[in-house]
Amino acid sequence: MMVGPDIARRASAGPTVDDTTDLFGLRSPLVVRALLVLGVIYVVVTVGTCWSIASVWSWIGFGAAFLILAVDLAVLTHVRGDPVRAWTTILALGLLLGGTALAWWSVPGATFEPVQCLPAAITGVVILALLVVRGRIGAAWVGAVGMSLSAGTWAAALGLGFAAGLVFTSWVYPVMLFASLFGVMLRPLADTIRMLRARAVRHASESAASGAAAVERERQLALLDRQARPLLEQVAAAHDFTPDEVIRARLVEAGLRDGIRAPAWQSARVRAAVWQARQRGVAVVLLDDGGLADAPALQSRLDELLIAELAAMGSGRVTARVMPPERPARASIVLTDRSGVRRYVCAQNGYITGGAGPDAGVEPT
To answer: Which parts of the chain span the membrane according to its record (predicted)?
Structure first.
């Protein structure tokens, strides 16, 4: 028993494997909440330790630095790709160095306290750890060194000395060491998880294909048993068919042929309308090349259109065809009778044109 092209196409397509952007849950509610908590702590510590600063420009700098670092975190947790792309890595490093430098340079020397440097530095370490998780360990170390150089330059300009700035960021390196070791162990695990996920997706696709084919096969067998078996039993019994029985046998044959070559046109109401039209002498040809397998709502609209047209025809010929995928038209219905030829065409956007006049059409829903 043949399986229709729409069933075969859905089976072969199956679900696809994600590109592992969220393989480690970077966009999970837990991580999002943790980053929100980090943001709240950043604001509270900055406001609490810098409360005595009266300069408006310093507060503008603090706010801008916070926004820059927040954008950096959003980029690293939402941009797709594994490992993250080179341009995204460069952007993340630029935002990291720019945000931390702006936060530090916004601290006036007259009211400087070491704790005022911590919010930006801690956020910078989180960004570096995310770069490690996203597969850019080398770039993360470049960012760590860049943070130290930036801090040293700022401290030297503040009169604290270049070495003091390096001390402010020295604790970053033990964190980076453990993060890098974690990343080195994590990457092979990521590959294993990706392979297992691909295997699970492939298994689910094959199971869905088997299930869809089994359902279609059962449907066609039930239809064959209900319509063809009585005729075959009569043939086996050398039954003398009357003209009406011959007509019915031909209708059954045509219906079975439709089930094989036009599964898209096999709703109960369409089958009934086609049966009745053929009884009245209308020649009906149904074809399905699978172009509407992913658009059941559009197929339903075409079904209603075909049913209405068949009900109004007492003679003539009707050809309803679902086109192959990627064609300019998704489906067409051509009707020929004494009044002439009418043609409906369904475009890729779902707009159906044609019918009684050149401007007739059915808007997509």
So the answer is: 30-54, 60-79, 86-107, 113-133, 140-165, 171-190
State the DSSP string of 15-45: -----STTTT-TTSHHHHHHHHHHHHHHHHH
Beta strands in 233-339, from DSSP E residues, in sequence order: 283-288, 317-322, 329-337
| Residue carrying structure tokens 């810098």 | 50
What is the length of the chain? 365
Strand, helix or coil for residue 354? strand
How much is the average pLDDT of 183-210?
79
Using CA atoms, how far apart are residues 45 and 212, in angstroms rounded to an integer? 59
Look at residue 70 and tell me whether its pLDDT is greater than 90.
yes
Q: How far apart are CA 265 and CA 119, in angstroms?
A: 64
pLDDT tens track for 143-155: 999 999 999 999 8
Q: What is the pLDDT of residues 332-357, one digit of tens each?
A: 999 998 888 999 999 988 899 986 54
pTM: 0.54
Helix (H) or strand (E) holding 148, with range, is helix 137-158
Domains of the chain by residue range: 29-199, 260-362
Output the six-digit token pair for 299: 């197929």
Structure-block tokens of residue 73: 């975190």
Residue 348 tokens read as 């890729």
The owner of tokens 């045509």 is: 254
> Residue 132: in which H helix or E strand, if any?
helix 118-133
**Cα 119 to Cα 56: distance, rounded to the nearest angstrom:** 19
